[in-house]
Amino acid sequence: MNVLLVEDDASIALVITAALEAEGFGVTHCDSIAERDRLLALHRFAALVTDVMLTDGDGIETIGQVRAMAPDMPIIILSAQNTLDTAVRASDTGAFEYFPKPFDIDELARTVRQAVGAASAKGGTEEDAPVAGLPLVGRSAPMQAVYRMITRVLRNDLTVLVLGESGTGKELVAEAIHQLGQRKDGPFVAVNTAAIPAELIESELFGHEKGAFTGAVARHIGKFEQANGGTLFLDEIGDMPMQAQTRLLRALQSGSVRRVGGREEIKVDVRIVAATNRDLEPMIAAGQFREDLFYRLNVVPITLPPLRERADDIPALARHFLQLAAVEGLPRHQLSDEAAALLSRQPWRGNVRELRNFIYRLALLAREDAIDAESTASLIQQTARADAEAGSAGDLAGSVAEWLVINRPAPGTVYDAALAAFERPLFTAVLRETQGNQLRAAQMLGINRNTLRKRLSDLGIDPAELHQPG
To answer: Which position among 20, 84, 321, 337 has the lowest Cβ density within 10 Å, counted as fewest Cβ atoms?
Structure first.
């Protein structure tokens, strides 16, 4: 069995050839699209392994020519253009697999063997135009793994569970799966299950009939029905109350929902993408999350890396956020390489969300067109001091105003977004004031002590760390 290798880097071609020959394949090598097409016209090959950027053109854009000459031949695409756009373009060709460079040569050889073994008659696929405005940024190895997983779920409706720390961009993954997948013409509906009061979550998800409960003055269409034909993104699924988990499981199993107070079973056609920053398996052991729901959601897990594990992406992310800030009306700036390097060395415990907020603040406050390391370091220090003094009264109105400028929440979401943003510093400030005493803190806040304890646990705040005896 012969494999056609199209690669214009001689050293890479030599390594790939040796690996494939070790698998028992014969290898024919060329370095151009023109020579590729000439060889395909003359010979039949078991598989094609091709680079994207070749001496005479784009290997992906010309896959249609390959399909016309060898419609059943599996294709494996290699590329040093390690962006989600490239991964999606490769997937759109119907390629068997896509490998960003650098890649594991043994994995490539195994994949070629699998592709040849699994080869079956397939018609050509129409090439889609590259999709603009892709939401994910980064070319690091951890993000390449994410891109590859995304491309594997674009041509099916498998349920996806996105895992990762808070602020890593889990909703962006859900948006990418929707925008690039076969449901892109349907609605994308996102719901943060942690932001909805427990007594209202079933109504929000499944809807309610008029008169179903006090205050239900009209029929309400739930998120499942709103997402019909598209994608429903369930964020913070680990915070969903057990009763709602049971009804969610039933909806996923039956493909239908029943509005609160209603009797009719309503069929819905939705793709589910769920996300959580919590470790669900210990929650299952503790009886806080349904095991059967976990397995129903965890069909295809995609784990987003924290920003500290992809520091190489920080300069590109920072410049991307500066561009977005300018589009949204903030002053336009350039970021120096020194400033970008400084940003790459910061811990960013709040991950991409924290970096984005910092860059928007930097765009708002910087006076020079080119932002240098000195002004960046100054704002980093100011931010660190502000975080350290989070317990002081401060200028709350000014903080809220700055938060609104930086985050620009959509109309109708301001309250929930502001609550999520200010809840942690509020609880931290009150607990410092009460020397970590939760009962006094709950009394000061005017909430139940058990409610405070649960929210502290959800937010990962340890009251003991805030006990500062005088």
So the answer is: 337
